[in-house]
Design brief:
Length: 451
């Protein structure tokens, strides 16, 4: 946000000049010139006996002097209204002072428009002022003395013509300078914006490169740490099994339950480390799947066999309805992990004496095979379902689930979802609070199954 503000401020400084800053802008130069020339007309009028010349010269001088003061004291918003009006008044004064030239009157009518353009304010105000000049000329013409009533000595006769042409030329030059300066500022602003866009692009590329490098470093760290943790952890589990089976004799009284507790906690930690490793590989894009035609039932049977011990300890019954063999396009290693994670998750949140049901069904119209893993556990709320698949997210089972439940890492279903997506499948849950949860896995059928 700070960068955006500084950029806008720098661009604004390039395109605007504070009105109070004493710089000689084109409109200020032209207005001072008009004031000096109108002062000369006033001096010339002092040698004449012509009332119209006196009135016109004085009106023009007062208007231009007021314009000089306004250009150095008020802001641009106020100038947009005042400057065209003052130049219109000066135009009327020049026309009144002019005794003979129609061209001078024409030049006087376009003065407000040129003044507005040179000042960089609304051209609509200048156009309105010019129209007012034309109306005022039409109204004042009958009331003023005729031009030929003027006595002249030669110089005064052409003075107003010279003044009109000089100021009109000066205003035209001022307008051209103003437009040219605006174009240069626009070009400079566009160049600054281009440079800023390139700078932001370079920053975005550097940030993306940094994020990619951080992701790779994190994946490498997780892989190394997981390996370092799993090696001693497997040894701990092996020693716990040795003590639990009493290979070297029975344990002392009071220590009989410790090997089982060590094995349970170590297995939970091993699952957590495995999920961490898999998630880091998936997020880093290093988890490669090899899609081939495989049978779904074999993976469910393997997962049931691996989970049977956990289910027996938890007092949970596993029932399957596999049906006929169905082949899908999937990865062997990923499917083993998906089946094991889903069954383990269902057992974890099923109370003692509960049931976990497995089913494979064919969705022939859509060319899909669907695996259903159902439990009759605590269920999930709508908020829990919305977070499914997000790493580290867990449902609120603390009050609803049985006391046997061990809170997991929140990675199990996230790993399942990512692995299914890598195999071009879909994963979703349906759950009712207090009535259990059903996990669905949909995978494309193999070409053999579609025949």
């Amino acid at each position: 946000m700070k960068n955006h503000s500084s950029l806008a401020l720098s661009l604004a400084n390039q395109t605007q000049v504070p009105p109070t800053k004493r710089t000689w802008t084109p409109i200020r130069c032209a207005t001072v010139l008009a004031c000096l020339l109108s002062a000369i007309l006033v001096v010339l009028a002092s040698f004449e006996l012509y009332t119209r010349f006196w009135f016109g010269s004085g009106l023009m001088f007062v208007a231009m002097l007021t314009g000089v003061v306004a250009l150095w004291t008020i802001n641009q918003a106020q100038q947009s209204m005042i400057i065209p009006i003052l130049w219109a008044v000066a135009a009327l004064g020049l026309w009144c002072a002019d005794a003979s030239a129609v061209g001078a009157s024409y030049s006087a009518m376009i003065w407000p428009l040129l003044g507005a353009a040179a000042a960089g304010v609304s051209l609509g105000n200048g156009l309105a002022a010019s129209l007012c000049v034309g109306v005022m000329i039409a109204l004042l013409s009958p009331a003023l003395p005729p031009p030929d009533a003027r006595s002249s000595d030669g110089l005064a006769e052409f003075s107003t013509i010279v003044v009109s042409l000089a100021i009109t030329g000066a205003m035209t030059l001022a307008t051209c300078l103003r437009v040219g300066g605006t174009i240069e500022r626009v070009r400079a602003t566009a160049q600054a914006m281009t440079q800023e866009a390139e700078r932001r692009r370079d920053l975005a590329q550097a940030e993306a490169h940094f994020i990619q490098r951080e992701s790779q470093n994190r994946a490498r760290f997780m892989a190394e740490m997981s390996h370092e943790i799993r090696t001693p952890l497997n040894a701990i589990l092996g020693f716990a099994d040795t003590m639990r089976e009493g290979v070297f004799g029975p344990l002392p009284k009071g220590y009989e339950d410790y090997p089982s507790l060590i094995h349970t906690s170590g297995s939970h930690l091993l699952d957590l480390v495995s999920d961490l490793l898999d998630m880091s590989k998936i997020e880093a894009g290093r988890y490669q799947v090899q899609l081939e035609s495989i049978r779904l039932d074999q993976f469910l049977f393997e997962a049931i066999a691996l989970s049977s011990g956990t289910a027996q300890v938890a007092g949970v019954q596993i029932r399957h309805e596999v049906g006929p063999a169905i082949e899908v396009m999937a990865d062997n290693r990923a499917m083993r992990q998906i089946a094991f994670n889903l069954i383990s998750n269902a057992i974890k949140f099923t109370p003692k004496g509960g049931l976990v049901s497995l089913r494979i069904r064919l969705d022939a119209p859509n060319g899909q095979a669907v695996i259903e893993v159902k439990d009759d556990g605590a269920g999930m709320t709508a908020a829990d379902l919305a977070r499914v698949g997000e790493p580290w997210s867990q449902g609120d089972h603390e009050e609803r689930a049985n006391s046997r439940v061990i809170r997991g890492s929140g990675l199990g279903l996230a790993v399942v979802k990512r692995l299914i997506e890598l195999q071009r499948g879909q994963f979703w849950l349906e759950s009712t609070l207090g009535q259990g949860t059903v996990a669905y896995v949909s995978l494309p059928l193999s070409t053999k199954a579609l025949r």
